[in-house]
Task: structure prediction
Amino acid sequence: MNLLVTGGCGFIGSNFIRQRLTEKGSPLTRLVNLDALTYAGNPANLADLAGDPRYVFAQGDIGDPALVTRLLAEHAIDAVVNFAAESHVDRSIDSPEPFIQTNVVGTLRLLNCTKQYWAKLPEAKKAAFRFLHVSTDEVYGTLSASDPAFTEETPFAPNSPYAASKAGSDHLVRAYQHTYGLPTLTTNCSNNYGPYHFPEKLIPLMILNALEGKPLPVYGDGQQIRDWLYVEDHAAAIWLVLRQGRVGETYNVGGLNEKPNIEIVQTICALLDRKSPRADGKPYLSQVTYVADRPGHDRRYAIDCAKLQRELGWKPKENFTTGIAKTVDWYLANRMWCSDITKKKYSRERLGTGQG
Result:
């Protein structure tokens, strides 16, 4: 298989690429990573794979038709996995337009180039081709404490510019399958966490702020509930859906770990108290600072991933206890990566908490 991955220098994309190129018996002949290297894209995420002859990096935008067309043809691509997206809710509230440009217009142009390439393939390759679009549970809106979890049939009700832009891209993917027959698949995931997570998001922000003696900003009362999915479990689910999922279908991917944000912060503080205690002996929890809630902040997300489990036999390997411990250990061991990425086009003065 020759695979085109877009946004592969970001958090989830880089974990997916690493998993694909390091697994035993990988069927990949070529993996092309197309990434625009915006503030959240970091080539250092994949520096250890640079010598792999199967790996090709191309810097550029999914909205560049000439570049996408050339890469598809030049590398005889058999499947596309689209991670490329603006993904931070706080940034979308401050400035929605980049989210529309990348997530809607960019996805449209990527789909159009892919459709034109796919239409010219020999019949066998055409039948085997796949386009997998990676999306979010935020397209479904918000839940009350007693509501059932989101399923693939939950109506879209996005509540932030980010969520609206992802909902738009999901609709385009569906339309290209229904109208043109392009063999698409969509995955909608819950909040990811793990290694290489950009430090504006909740978990890495709390770890790094704690270690640097900075406030740990918690929105509102901290009782917003999210389902937490370890990134390597998500990467494995995407690969499974790409190879075995039914064309035209959507698969929800969840970590089966619903927790309020304040509990996440408390867990991180407790781990750091044991693994890297403060010099003054005080608990990291003393750094928690409650800040004004985000405008229109969704109260709860929850994913029902029974379809993925039932049809494809997927289940997460990590529970939150094991996953968060691995994550804290990774950040403690990779302080230089954290320092380098936070200096790159990013100011940590913002009190966004990446809560999705």
Notes: The longest strand covers residues 130-136. Residues 345-352 have pLDDT under 50 and may be disordered.
